[in-house]
Automatic annotation (TrEMBL):
Name under which the protein is recorded: Caseinolytic peptidase B protein homolog
Entries under CDD domains matching the protein: RecA-like_ClpB_Hsp104-like (cd19499)
Any Gene Ontology biological process: cellular response to heat
A cellular-component GO term for this protein: mitochondrion
Coiled coil: 229-256
Record's keyword terms, sorted: ANK repeat, ATP-binding, Coiled coil, Nucleotide-binding
Organism phylogeny: Eukaryota, Metazoa, Spiralia, Lophotrochozoa, Mollusca
InterPro entries: AAA+_ATPase (IPR003593), Ankyrin_rpt (IPR002110), Ankyrin_rpt-contain_sf (IPR036770), ATPase_AAA_core (IPR003959), Clp_ATPase_C (IPR019489), ClpA/B (IPR001270), ClpA_ClpB (IPR050130), P-loop_NTPase (IPR027417)
Domain called Clp ATPase C-terminal: residue spans: 492-582
PANTHER family, per the entry: ATP-DEPENDENT CLP PROTEASE, MITOCHONDRIAL DISAGGREGASE
AAA+ ATPase domain boundaries: 294-442
Molecular functions (GO terms): ATP binding; ATP hydrolysis activity
Amino acid sequence: MASRIYRQLFRNTYSFVSQRIHVYRINRLSTDTLLSKHNLRGIKWNKFRSSFLQHLGPKVKLKHVLGTNAIICAVALCYSGYKNDAAQLLSRAKRKDYSEVERLIKSGVAVDSRHQLGWTALHVAAVNQDTRLLELLLRLGADPNLGDEYTTYYAIAREQRFDPMSVLMTREEEFNDRLSQRANFKGCTPLHYAVLMEDFTIVKLLLEAGADPTVENVNGHKPIDYTKNQSLQMVLATAETKFLELKEKKAAEERRKFPLEQRLREHIIGQDGAINTVSAAIRRKENGWYDEDHPLVFLFLGSSGIGKTELAKQVAKYLHKDVKKGFIRIDMSEYQEKHEVAKFIGSPPGYVGHEEGGQLTKKLTECPQAVVLFDEVEKAHPDVLTIMLQLFDEGRLTDGKGKTIECKDAIYIMTSNLASEVIAGHALQLRAEAAEYNKHKDAQKLEDLEAAERITISRKFKDDVVRPILKRAFRRDEFLGRINEIVYFLPFSRSELSKLVTKELHYWSDQAKKKHNITLVWDHNVVDVLADGYDVHYGARSIKYEVERRVVTQLAMAHERQLIEKGCVIRLSATNAEDLTKTDKSNVDPPTIKLQLLQKGKGDKYVDINLKGGDNPFTAGFKE
């Protein structure tokens, strides 16, 4: 009863207030904060309050007088920020002032501007069945697939520290009281709302504008789930089929133009064999040539810092635009004890943490098609591996609450350092043999040299050396039998190390320019010197640390001593770099890297920066 009275009062005072209230963004809705935090000098609040009380009438004046503050707040909320162009757009859209809406958008106001409670003008048009406004907004570029961010009036009020009654009244007024007060509408697109209103005309307009009929809201419901009208269901079902076909066609065309291997190589240096193996398996899955009853499972083997985790991340980025949900990383070193199985799938009923769910099951429920990375899987307790055995076999997992989660479409990647020593040693031996063979061939082309560095692990080595190591670690053949592909990551070749060093130097060059306005250049032999810092046990990380130790530390010291300043040009050069090619290095001084400053004048030249002053405590670190 009170709610209806408030709505009626709101409508009666709409015209009166709209002419006089100008409020900036409101952080907390109450009469006191409105008066104290915002510039409301032009409003005579006593007179405004009296106007409300006059509308209440003698019978309800005393009973509902306490609600006048909420009404005032609701009106203020509706008009808060109306000096802001986005808020004006929503106001004009609600009033059906089409010419002003068009003028505002053409003047630069974003057509998809949101109300501070979460919706856009297109949502308002769909719910209020305003066909003319909807056509105008779509013509001006409105996105038909934007979801409403409004949850429930109480949740919004608590989150943004608003008065619950004023949030409710604002929502009801904006959508003419056509939506349920208690329902959660987060994620609902204009198509959801149009179907809810059963407006065929607006549904067709949205579909023609590219609305996605397969989008699910926060409750997991698609637009078709909101109607029992068979004709409308048929329209939406047909649209879903066509949309999925078109989406798959576009995806296939994009894959042909830009293959997965090419995408991965943009972010990962080397590891051609690993990239090709993973890409081939994913290509089979994407094109329907895979076993639908079992998920895709990989085991990545190799030394630390060699690209295993990065490849998993890039696969997730390729398959899912939202990497936060589409990539699940589980550090298996946290599951070394038997009782930690509960943390994996959730505690059983009656135990602490039962309602929280497991780390894996909870995330797989949110995204059943995710890429799941089990990092350092050899460290997990055998009971955890038993759980994973069920997951890899049938693609399902039962959590602590007894609920079965279907996740056959997920991709599971395990990483391990098992056999990394023998794999690295074997790869280095093969690479040395290939280089020796290439030397006898007297190959001079760069392509021939790079081809000589590409090696393949033999089947005999995998079966006779690697598999026994894996079997001893996992203690069961059936676990290894669930793995579709064992992917081998090999030590970097010389050319790959040069690319890694160059990439790292470019990173620090960008940082120097961005933070200090310093230009950083280097000689080609600097790359060779830094590449010698590669440690096969630490992979690309050893290159990163080498650059920081021998280059970045010197830059920091020179900056601290004010030997370099903004706008200068610094060159990295290497001394004794030619000695790297000598066979006998016993009497050769190790190469060093020094900083040189460009002195501009008649003849520009580089001058060495002296960092070896005895009074500096850091000097000893630069004596090679």
